[in-house]
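User: Hi! I have a protein structure encoded as tokens and I'd like to know what sequence might fold into it. I'm fairly new to this, so please keep things simple.
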């Protein structure tokens, strides 16, 4: 029987450097670089102001609804989405707890367990980052709770469970949230509206996509990765002498060194939202791979732009928490940081 306790809802990271003497600088031809006049700020600052990211352009109202755990008996004409709408729970959550697999067929008289929780109804253009910020919850907790997987694009109408945080004021929720690379990789794309598809990438930086438009990324990685700059690795991947972990490598280069795309891909983010890394560019390459380029002084590309291996995407700098002119270079496969040296040509 359907329990009356179920509530309907109107929802849904510099310090000590370790010099790598084993490798000589690679030889890189950056090709032509666009050096047309741009708004150049004071030394050490981003020369190009980043455009407003989707999580700022489309803020989220924390209006999640509590749904009590219960049971629902499937009636004629019911669908999994319809059951979710009736009970206020998420269709993915219902499928998960009941062991339902695609195409998620349900039968009349079937008893479905309805998982309780605090459910947020995702609206078009909302991002995981904005949702996490609105509730003062780490986005990765939401990812884990809802078993979200690559490519981590939400859809309008989806109901996701918000882990409990206890009573918090708006100011407390804002202070509780801290943006990092993993958040942007998994929670930076806007939710798609019904029947909407991600926007096709452009080869030109002149075409600027709205911040609330999801961007299509390559399905497959085209070839391997190459070194993004010529320089000495001054800090390796992993924990340093002080115990602080580095999720990438630091490469010492003069300011205004061209930073090259390590592989074909699409620009997923440009900005300075991760304070420690300063001017930041992130590319998605397919097969779950993302490359990250930090401490840049000037960004030469836009979000949603298609780039080729070896194309200049930024000029290096010493922004963020850099102790010297250097490039932070990072590779991730899914949510997992991978030592770039193991993926790059030996030199």
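Assistant: Happy to help. Inverse folding works backwards from shape to sequence: for each of the 347 positions I chose a residue that suits the local structure. Here it is:
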């Amino acid at each position: 029987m359907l329990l009356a306790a179920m509530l309907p809802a109107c929802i849904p990271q510099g310090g000590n450097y370790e010099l790598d003497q084993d490798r000589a600088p690679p030889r890189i031809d950056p090709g032509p670089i666009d050096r047309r006049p741009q708004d150049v700020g004071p030394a050490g600052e981003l020369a190009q102001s980043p455009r407003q990211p989707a999580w700022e352009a489309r803020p989220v109202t924390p209006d999640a609804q509590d749904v009590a755990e219960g049971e629902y008996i499937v009636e004629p004409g019911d669908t999994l989405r319809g059951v979710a709408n009736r009970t206020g729970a998420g269709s993915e959550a219902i499928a998960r707890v009941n062991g339902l697999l695609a195409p998620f067929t349900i039968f009349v008289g079937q008893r479905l367990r309805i998982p309780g929780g605090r459910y947020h109804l995702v609206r078009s253009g909302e991002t995981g980052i904005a949702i996490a910020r609105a509730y003062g919850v780490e986005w990765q907790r939401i990812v884990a709770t809802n078993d979200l997987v690559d490519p981590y694009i939400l859809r309008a109408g989806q109901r996701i469970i918000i882990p409990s945080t206890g009573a918090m004021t708006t100011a407390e929720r804002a202070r509780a949230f801290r943006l990092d690379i993993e958040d942007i990789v998994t929670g930076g794309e806007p939710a798609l509206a019904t029947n909407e598809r991600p926007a096709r990438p452009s080869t030109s930086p002149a075409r600027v996509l709205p911040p609330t438009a999801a961007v299509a990324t390559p399905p497959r990685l085209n070839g391997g990765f190459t070194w993004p700059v010529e320089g000495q690795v001054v800090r390796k991947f992993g924990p340093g002498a002080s115990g602080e972990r580095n999720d990438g490598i630091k490469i010492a280069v003069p300011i205004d060194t061209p930073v090259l795309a390590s592989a074909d891909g699409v620009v997923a983010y440009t900005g300075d939202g991760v304070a420690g890394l300063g001017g930041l560019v992130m590319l998605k390459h397919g097969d779950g791979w993302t490359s990250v380029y930090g401490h840049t002084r000037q960004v030469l590309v836009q979000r949603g732009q298609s780039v080729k291996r070896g194309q200049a995407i930024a000029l290096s700098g010493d922004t963020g928490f850099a102790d010297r002119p250097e490039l932070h270079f990072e590779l991730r496969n899914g949510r997992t940081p991978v030592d770039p040296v193991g993926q790059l040509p030996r030199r």
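A useful reference point when you look it over: The CA atoms of residues 288 and 334 lie 5 Å apart. Feel free to ask if any position seems puzzling.
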